[in-house]
Design goal:
58% of the residues lie in helices and 15% in strands. The protein is α+β, with helices and mostly antiparallel strands and 116 residues long. A three-stranded antiparallel beta sheet has the order 1-3-2. Strand 2 and strand 3 form a beta hairpin. It is rod-shaped.
Length: 116
């Protein structure tokens, strides 16, 4: 069979369907990879920032604990990204600050975990 006869015998719609399926799978894998990479970068930025605060108190009683709003401003991440990075990290500690009146959690502070 020569090339011209092969071209006439190909079911082009079926061939395009297979190509589209392969391309869809490739784009889905790429998007999943990018999503995971962005989550890892955000978590690493949070860990590195908090680790950099250790041993450098900005005021007398500074223990390196920061609020979510402070971290959002410094790292340029959303609240959800900060919380997700903090909860998924083994190096970050989440501290509940209770309301003195009710004893319920009023605020969340995040700091680098002290391994000592």
């Amino acid at each position: 069979m020569n090339f011209g006869a092969w071209l006439l015998s190909v079911d082009w719609l079926d061939l395009l369907d297979h190509i589209a399926s392969i391309m869809t799978a490739a784009v889905a894998v790429w998007a999943w990879w990018q999503f995971g990479l962005r989550r890892r970068r955000n978590r690493s930025a949070l860990e590195n920032y908090l680790n950099g605060l250790r041993g450098k108190p900005q005021w007398g009683t500074d223990k390196g604990q920061r609020t979510i709003v402070h971290l959002m401003a410094e790292l340029r991440q959303t609240e959800a990204e900060i919380i997700e990075g903090a909860f998924s990290s083994r190096k970050v500690q989440i501290i509940r600050v209770p309301d003195p009146r009710t004893g319920l959690a009023a605020e969340i502070m995040i700091s680098y975990k002290d391994n000592g």
